């Protein structure tokens, strides 16, 4: 996977007014806006209001996600301090508690919907009528599959070909409903649980989809548009102090990286980062392993480093986050990578399964 980032400052001239512009985009990820839902995926209405008020007061420019991504790919500069807002799942509390706050600020936003519970009329999920109302005030609705599956797990007796067919159906069914019920689709997908692999990402490229994981980081034109990063902003990440750091993040100036694949084993994970030539504060790079603390850094030269966890990940998803201050000290370059460690009774589509 290549992340050949070129962070170039550009200047827009508008009459006699000079405004900085940026070629990258931090994206915020929310789920519930409620106090009675699981804390790990929730912000309270008060916390969400605090976040949105801060964006407005600090001069952030909340942009439409699909438009901003198209601009990044085309090399068109975004406004200075551009940021996008997203929600995963079609929870009704987004409409009840989040939407009024977003409307107050006239902020655009994107909701990735899983259509299974919507079509069944589940009272905890949005209705198509509510979505149409939200569209009138900047809402965009995108794909989160039909049933919110673990996309990398095989069902009993399922072949790899049948698995890929089932995953295509999960995505295509939602695309059809978006076009039928709302009249259009932005052709964007958020992977359930943030999980994808080489085959799924290739499938999304074939379907013409832009897709998002749940690793943290910043999007620029050299990002993998079948696995874009977002910053979680709920639960443990809902504090405004930590959100401020993420809102000022930049893409890590990498030429490439290697991560040993999508799956972790009983051995500690490691990855190698190769940095661009440039005036960077590489000596201040810091990487943190989820649940373990600081990672071991082994420099392989002036611009390459091996990043290693001390212990194996437990079953589930684990990640390593790396940050580095820029020369101004006001921003951090940011990069994150995620691995999955499957339990013995979970039939994930690992390299071993594919060989068998």
UniProtKB/TrEMBL annotation:
It comes from Marinomonas fungiae. This is Polysaccharide deacetylase. It holds the Pfam family Polysacc_deac_1. PROSITE patterns: NODB (PS51677). Residues 1-21 form the signal peptide. SUPFAM superfamilies: Glycoside hydrolase/deacetylase. One of its GO terms (molecular function) is hydrolase activity, acting on carbon-nitrogen (but not peptide) bonds. It comes from the Bacteria. The keyword Signal applies.
């Amino acid at each position: 996977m290549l992340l050949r980032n070129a962070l170039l400052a550009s200047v827009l001239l508008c009459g006699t007014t000079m405004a900085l512009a940026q070629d990258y985009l931090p994206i915020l990820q929310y789920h519930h806006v409620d106090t009675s839902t699981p804390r790990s995926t929730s912000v309270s209405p008060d916390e969400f209001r605090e976040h949105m008020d801060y964006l407005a007061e600090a001069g952030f420019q909340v942009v439409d996600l699909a438009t901003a991504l198209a601009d990044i790919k085309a090399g068109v500069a975004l406004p200075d301090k551009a940021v996008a807002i997203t929600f995963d799942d079609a929870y009704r509390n987004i409409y009840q508690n989040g939407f009024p706050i977003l409307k107050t600020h006239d902020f655009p936003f994107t909701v990735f919907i899983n259509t299974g519970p919507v079509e069944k009329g589940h009272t905890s999920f949005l209705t198509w009528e509510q979505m149409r109302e939200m569209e009138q005030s900047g809402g965009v609705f995108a794909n989160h599959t039909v049933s919110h599956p673990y996309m990398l797990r095989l069902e009993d007796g399922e072949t790899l070909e049948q698995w890929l067919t089932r995953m295509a159906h999960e995505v295509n069914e939602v695309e059809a409903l978006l076009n039928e019920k709302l009249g259009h689709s932005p052709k964007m997908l958020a992977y359930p649980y943030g999980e994808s692999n080489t085959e799924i990402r290739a499938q999304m490229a074939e379907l013409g989809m832009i897709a998002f994981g749940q690793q943290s980081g910043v999007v620029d034109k050299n990002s993998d548009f079948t696995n874009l990063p977002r910053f979680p902003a709920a639960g443990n990440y809902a504090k405004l102090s930590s959100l401020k750091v993420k809102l000022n993040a930049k893409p890590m100036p990498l030429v490439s990286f290697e991560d040993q694949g999508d799956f972790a084993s009983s051995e500690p994970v490691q990855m190698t980062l190769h940095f661009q030539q440039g005036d960077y504060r590489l000596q201040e790079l810091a990487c943190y392993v989820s649940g373990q603390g600081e990672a071991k850094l082994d420099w392989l030269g002036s611009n390459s480093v091996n990043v290693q966890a001390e212990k194996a990940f437990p079953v589930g998803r684990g990640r390593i986050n790396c940050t580095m201050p820029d020369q101004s000290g006001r921003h951090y370059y940011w990069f994150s990578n995620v691995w999955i460690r499957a339990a013995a009774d979970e039939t994930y589509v690992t390299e071993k399964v594919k060989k068998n």
